Fold:
Amino acid sequence: MRPWLIASGDFTTSGGMDRANYGLASYLARTGRPVHLVAHRVASDLASQPGVSVHHVARPFGAHLIGAPLLSRAAQRVSRSLDRSTCRLANGGNTVLPGGTWIHYLHAAHAPAVNGSIRTSLAMRAGRRYHLKRERTAIERADVIVCNSARTAADVRAHYRVPESRLRVIYYGVDREHFKRASARERCTARAALGIAANRYAALFVGALGDRRKGFDVLFDAWQALSADPAWDVDLLVAGDGGEQTSWIERARRAGLEGSLRFIGFRHDVASVLASADLLVHPARYEAYGLAVHEAICRGVPAIVTAGAGIAERYPPELGGLLLPDPPSPRALATALRAWRAHAEDWPGRIDPFAARLASRSWDQMAAEIAAVIES
Structure:
């Protein structure tokens, strides 16, 4: 079997691209391929698999912008030490390697807006310039570009004029056992653990609160309008953290939303949190794919998502009522939430066929398709 080199920030089971990287590396190792991972973090169970060699790169002070060039140089150094038969794959602009690049998030497709200090804003602008430069170089030099959705492939074509022949769309998979439909008992346990009242519905937002890309500001404004109605019997749980979390908590307090909006922080038990929910809300301004939406549907939880998200291109027409206009607005989201609530009991059954289709695709199937592309 041919050896592999994969360069990415993290190979863990949390987060969309991190989980996808973990899934690919695990499959390659389990199928007998020697695998070299150049990364800041690698899950211990993956690192201990036979045939896996971890080339750890520091991320000083936890700063991505400082760690990024260190990762790039380390990947190129390891690449030079391996023979020509090695299959090489980098994540986007992490580094430039002969072979392929895997686009999970296209920096050119979205300019993040951050409400923070001058220092934070300057750091974000500097980081964006760095990543855009690295991204362009990586894409221009790659033999093949693996994209996680047709939306991502279209963005690569539009921003970098890449011919169709160099692009491959390969969708993510899912852990079919971990994210199967929640049983009634599992649902009751999860709701009790989060203190959700039996007579209340629970909506869930999963995402970082460091910038406005995931659209929490849109959801907050919609929720404030909905909560003005005493008959609105839905609570909102916010799973995630980031630089703006404290200011959102204070804003919710000032708006008198403590009773219907709760911040539960970053969660490692996403599957359990999803089991407690009646709805996932994902009004993202930019989402190359949207693994949280994918996993929610597999758990039997309907998900309202922006129509421009990568995962939305997989929604069947009969679920069009769960798609928001792009860009999303508080008014459109509030309308969609009211429409969902009017038929909340029917939605789990309506998403069943779509859930079965998404759940039928494993991480190993995704990884096998990527391996076939890169090895050919």
About this structure: Residues 118-141 form the longest helix (24 residues). Residues 184-359 form a domain with the Rossmann fold fold (CATH 3.40.50.2000). The first strand starts at residue 4 and ends at 7.
